[in-house]
Amino acid sequence: MKLHSVQFEHSLRRRVKQAVSDSQELKREYRAAKRQARQYSSAGFFRVCLSLLLGCAVWGAVEYTQHPATALAILNLWALGSVFIRAKDLLACLFMEPDLAALSLLPIPEKTIFEWEFQKFIRRSLYSLADFIIGYGALALACDFGPGRWLLAMLLAALTWTVLLALAVIGAAYLRRTLIFFVANALTVAWVGLMIVWKILAASLLEILDRWSWHLNLLLPTGWPVSLAHGLYSGWDWRYLGLLVLIGGVCWSVRLALAQLRSGYEFVDVSYVEAPDILPESEAFDEADESDGRSAHLGETAIEEIVQSRQFLALTPWRQRGWFEEKLWLWLSEREKALCEWIFADGVSIVGPWKNAARNLLFVWVALFALKWLSASVSGWLIIIGLGVPLGQAIRLFYGTGRAFNSIACGGVSVPLYAGLAAGYRELSWLLFKYSLIQLPLLVVFSLCGGAIAAYLTDWPVWHGLLIALKLVCLLSAARCIFVALGFSSGTNDSAKFSLRSGCVLTAIIACGLTFLILAISWLLVANPVSAMICGALAMVDAFLFWRIYGWFYNTWRFDLMSIPRH
Predict the structure, then answer these.
(1) Domain extents in the chain
(2) Neighbouring C-beta atoms of residue 500, cutoff 10 Å
């Protein structure tokens, strides 16, 4: 399917070349444009590197365990994670592509638009096909396959990719979109963290996979085509026919899933109920007011009175919401108060969200202590998962930025909202630093409670859990500098194109970031207290240098705040 004419493109290209060759001025402009330095996107390069890392993992698993089934389990888990990522890509192609706004205005049926966007999804999924080609190729090299088995391995790579796409389509059709996006983002973060600590956990993880590889490959749908690779080194078994039947059932279900997606694919104008008027320093009229006969909208006289008395300029009285909000209000300058009103449209709210986080921590505390009472030993994974949820909520509150770094699409480019105001790098950063520092006592108390609970459940000394909690608070406070700089980076073109300048910037930023991670992990794991304190101090200095180095590039106009939207 084509939404354009190939003959028209060839004819237009031929006429443009003829016009350039007939005009000396156009020739000069063409030569000048050709001499300009070309910029290339680095996304494809890093994606190929990720595929090569998968191949190295498969090769290393075979060399370490001497069992090809362990390497196949790695391919299975990689495919399982890719299912959610590809399902997210499919939903993004169908419902969030920038060209949908233009395509919906063309006189073409929605079925054609659906097929056009689905083809884009298939083309983007070719990276997953490259993953499996490299993964199965590494397996073939490690097991010393012959030419015939090499060919079968490549066919299994294509079959695994097909099952992956089928499961992605089925998931996009029947699973909740919030669940798909959450799992896809969580897996991305987990993969990055696993690559960082791979040297530490590699042996333990490979031993676990070696023990459960056969079961994983048979139970998970993504493991069914992978399980067929057992026949490449152990001989064919008639039971593999059952796996082929299951794979055929998954592929056949794609038709129903596509029909489900296509049935709800239509472009309609969204209409909203007219909102009631909101009086300055008051709440909106509710349904009870309307039932009492009061109108949800003000009259012309009331509106004129509000404008003439300048009541509409009144700030949201968020400083009256709690003690921390009041102290933050007194700490801010007049300029920062105005910026704070813009960043937090509904005003700053600190006490209320932290009460919710404390309630979640209390619930986790009760659940874990109940498990401790029922069983003498509580699994460390349960403690990490249980305390990780409220801790993640606390970190989100501590790192809050409101809408400071939100971007809007304007003329085909993304422009951060702060670019429309006279708010500089340091000014906006200091405001966010103050917002985090005012919450530091709450984070300290929250972390100490979590550390004490974890120490008690794992039978460690309580002081040890409190010490680790304090170290985490210090690291989170220092990392605030890094995340503020990354917030500015999200609205610039510093990493959108690959060039010598962007390469230098990325090298400096990645070096500072990796140094911070290494020093932070050393501070948590080093037993010598003096060495640990030195690592912690250096980590804090490195985080501050990260913020200053990026600020130097930012303030010397090294970046463009109008960047092409990434999708």
Answers:
(1) 44-263, 318-555
(2) 9
In degrees rounded to 5, what are phi and psi of residue 505?
-65, -50
> Side chain identity at 456, as an amino acid letter?
Y
Distance between CA atoms of residues 33 and 20, nearest Å = 13
Taking each continuous run of H as one helix and of E as one strand, the counts in the chain are 24, 2
Q: How far apart are CA 171 and CA 501, in angstroms?
A: 41
Q: Can you give the pTM of this predicted structure?
A: 0.58
Please count the other Cβ atoms lying within 10 Å of the Cβ belonging to residue 532: 17
Q: How far apart are CA 84 and CA 79, in angstroms?
A: 9
d(CA 73, CA 384) in angstroms, rounded, equals 25
Overall residue count recorded for the chain in this entry: 567
CB-CB neighbours of 537 under 10 Å:
14
Q: SS3 of 278, please? A: strand
DSSP state of 315: P
User: 3-state DSSP call for residue 35?
Assistant: helix
- pLDDT at position 42: 64
What's the whole-number average pLDDT of the chain?
81
Q: What is the CA radius of gyration of the chain?
A: 29
Mean pLDDT of 559-563: 68
Asked whether the beta carbons of 493 and 413 are under 8 A apart, the reply is: no
Tokens read off for 187: 């897996």
